[in-house]
Amino acid sequence: MMNKKIIFGIVLGVVAIAVFGHFASESNQNSATDSDEAAWQLLQKTYLDSECKEKYMGQPDAMQDCFDRVAEEQRLNPLNPELTSTAPPLQLSAKPVSDLDCLGTAQCFIGTVTEIIDGDTIKVDGQSVRFALSSAPEIKGYGGVDARNFIETICPVGSMAIVDEDDGQILGSYGRLVGMVTCNDVNLNSELLDSNLGYMEFRFCDSSEFGGESWAVKHGCE
């Protein structure tokens, strides 16, 4: 009969080999996962950086801000290659309200323009936003299409826009948020009036928080 010490030694050796093999395999899997995640992150960053360059061409400060937000978003929300078959478009988080140039205390946010409805109403992140104080002709009326096309030229779908809700009209208008919209560094409320494709809604000058702004005063609010 084989010596008990020899048998015990063999068993111990088999167990040690199994344990070592398990940890070695797990280590290799972890290394592969880390490598895959790094590859996905690089692929996604390359895609998003190209989006920043296309969207903010000629605006170096805005482009750098976009790059910084991409990096921060990836840091906070790393991809998991085990759950992701393709690199999905990453939605950039909105800037904190404190970083935006907003007035009053009503909501203020930055989002993506998803539709140009007409000359004085657009959708930002799916929310309809009506320009405060500035109006355009109805889309089927004379000049309506021109006003819409003008706004679309300045602020095409996919642009980032800052929406500052009018503290004096927080109840909105027909389900639309009423506010001042800045898109690609252009105040759309003011630009619509400057282009003579829109007109001032004087009846709201006293109640709107923007009634005393220079662009509103320029066009007749006192």
Automatic annotation (TrEMBL):
TNase-like domain mapped to chain residues: 107-209
InterPro entries xref list: SNase_OB-fold_sf, Staphylococal_nuclease_OB-fold
Taxonomy, superkingdom: Archaea
Name of protein: TNase-like domain-containing protein
Organism expressing this protein natively: Nitrosopumilus zosterae
